[in-house]
């Protein structure tokens, strides 16, 4: 049951297997435990991995099972997972299963759903894989530092009857702030990051290494599962001549479609499942570029067609994924909640309520706070709900970003339909668990509060969340 540590030759392995995190992890398809659950072990502790190519030194990180990303946990829809977590860090942590609809006690939020896992401590998470899709796990404690140091991994729940593809590939994207020594810059939760766009880095990795090439075959169909594990970086991936077909967002199936402008956008914590038909000529090379930060195009990786062609025309296999068992919101009878996000630099916020008392911006900043939801900046452990919902009722969150920065807004324990953006209906009204809001954006989402418990509602940029931008939604 215990997972092997990765060896220093990992870079060499990765060069051949980029994209096949599962090959490295040794975590997939473990034997069934006596009671029928799929049982995994995650040991959390320091490790060294080769992020930058040699001769750069290995980077000291924190990791799950010594791997970066953590092992790909892969089960089939309807199965039960049991994950035995052991913390060998010098500080407490928890594991949150992002996007998974699970019992509240398994949600991994310290002081809200469980006690922190102390150094040397253990916690067993156990839940059913209700929805098929692309999910991930990460700590929910001191996240600005713990995730930036490398604590994250993919959680893939396969459909009972998965659509046919030639290869099913996971790319976990991250954005690191590395010094020339290839070590992580230890300025976590820096004042500028808190009050601006969060911890934006200088080095993008795919599955824990700076990628160079990704080998493909003409004619093959790839399911590419993208996970944005970066603290703060948004991606807008331009796949060149390859027209990406989006088949799922945040793990939930969506009507297959090519995104506007051909660009695949992922805010922090978001996932996109793509179907890619690799139809460029054999021998060619095409580039994947991140164009989110206009004028600073970032070359991510090259697709290299250097192997035998597989076929000359794309296969005619179906693209659509089977729906997950979500309850459709009753929008006509919904309760509406107006939600504002304020704060940060250049936002003109005068101040906010902190523990029930009015604080001006200057005194907030002294307390490490810079953001508010509905005029309240969360400080320390949030326990009191900002809103209480009756189980089974539909709610619309009418959210306005009154700040000068992007915010990926995330709700635990549920998925919501994104209804509108700036008054325009959103195409396909996708189910998501995280929605990216640009400055001044107004977004409406709807969901049925069908999962009882206290659930976090927060900006997924940990520098913003830990500086006040979080709250609790109670479902009773
Ligand atoms: Cu990805 Cu509150 O979590
Ligand atoms: Cu934010």
From TrEMBL:
Key words, A-Z: Metal-binding, Oxidoreductase, Signal
A molecular-function term among this protein's GO annotations: copper ion binding
CDD domains given in the database record: CuRO_1_CumA_like, CuRO_2_CumA_like, CuRO_3_CumA_like
SUPFAM superfamilies hit by this protein: Cupredoxins (SSF49503)
Domain Plastocyanin-like: 49-160, 168-280, 381-475
One Pfam family of this chain: Cu-oxidase_3
Signal peptide positions (record): 1-33
Cellular-component GO terms for this entry: outer membrane-bounded periplasmic space
InterPro entries, per the entry: Cu-oxidase-like_N, Cu-oxidase_2nd, Cu-oxidase_C, Cu-oxidase_fam, Cu_oxidase_CS, Cu_oxidase_Cu_BS, Cupredoxin, TAT_signal
Gene3D superfamilies reported in the protein's UniProt record: Cupredoxins - blue copper proteins
PANTHER family (alphabetical): MULTI-COPPER OXIDASE, MULTICOPPER OXIDASE LPR1
Protein name: FtsP/CotA-like multicopper oxidase with cupredoxin domain
Organism: Dichotomicrobium thermohalophilum
């Amino acid at each position: 049951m215990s997972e092997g540590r990765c060896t220093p030759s990992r870079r060499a392995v990765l060069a051949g297997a980029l994209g096949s995190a599962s090959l490295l992890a040794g975590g997939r398809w473990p034997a069934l435990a006596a009671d029928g659950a799929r049982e995994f072990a995650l040991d959390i502790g320091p490790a060294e991995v080769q992020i930058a190519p040699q001769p750069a030194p290995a980077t000291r990180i924190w990791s799950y099972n010594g791997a970066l990303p953590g092992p790909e946990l892969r089960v089939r829809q309807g199965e039960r997972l049991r994950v035995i977590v052991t913390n060998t860090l010098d500080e407490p942590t928890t594991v949150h299963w992002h996007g998974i609809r699970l019992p509240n006690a398994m949600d991994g939020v310290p002081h809200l759903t469980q006690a922190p896992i102390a150094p040397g401590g253990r916690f067993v998470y156990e839940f059913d894989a209700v929805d098929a899709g692309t999910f991930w796990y990460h700590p929910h404690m001191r996240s600005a530092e713990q995730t930036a140091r490398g604590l994250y991994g993919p959680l893939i729940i396969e459909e009972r009857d998965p659509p046919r593809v030639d290869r099913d590939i996971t790319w976990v994207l991250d954005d690191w702030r590395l010094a020339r020594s290839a070590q992580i810059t230890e300025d976590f939760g820096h004042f500028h990051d808190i009050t601006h766009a969060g911890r934006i880095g200088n080095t993008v990795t795919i599955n824990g290494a700076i990628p160079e090439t990704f080998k493909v075959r003409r004619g093959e169909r790839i399911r590419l599962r993208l996970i944005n594990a970066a603290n703060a970086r948004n991606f807008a991936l331009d796949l060149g001549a390859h027209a990406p077909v989006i088949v799922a967002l945040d793990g939930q199936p969506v009507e297959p479609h090519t995104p506007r402008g051909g660009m695949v956008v992922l805010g922090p914590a978001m996932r996109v499942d793509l179907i890619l038909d690799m139809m460029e000529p054999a021998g060619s090379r095409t580039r994947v570029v991140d164009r989110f930060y206009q004028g600073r195009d970032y070359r991510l990786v090259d697709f290299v067609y250097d192997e035998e062609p597989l076929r000359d025309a794309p296969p005619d296999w179906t693209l659509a994924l089977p729906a997950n068992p979500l309850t459709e919101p009753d929008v006509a009878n919904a309760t509406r909640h107006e939600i504002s996000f304020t704060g940060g630099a250049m936002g003109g916020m005068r101040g906010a309520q902190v523990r029930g008392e009015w604080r001006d911006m200057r005194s907030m900043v002294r307390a490490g706070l810079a953001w508010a939801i509905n005029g309240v900046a969360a400080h320390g452990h949030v326990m009191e709900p900002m809103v209480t919902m009756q189980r089974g009722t539909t709610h619309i969150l009418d959210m306005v970003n009154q700040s000068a920065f992007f915010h990926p807004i995330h709700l635990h324990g549920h998925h919501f339909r994104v209804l509108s953006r700036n008054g325009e209906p959103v195409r396909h009204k996708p189910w998501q668990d995280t929605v990216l809001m640009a400055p001044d954006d107004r977004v409406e989402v709807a969901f049925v509060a069908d999962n009882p418990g206290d659930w976090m509602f927060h900006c997924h940029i940990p520098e913003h969340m830990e500086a006040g931008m979080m709250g609790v939604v109670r479902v009773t």
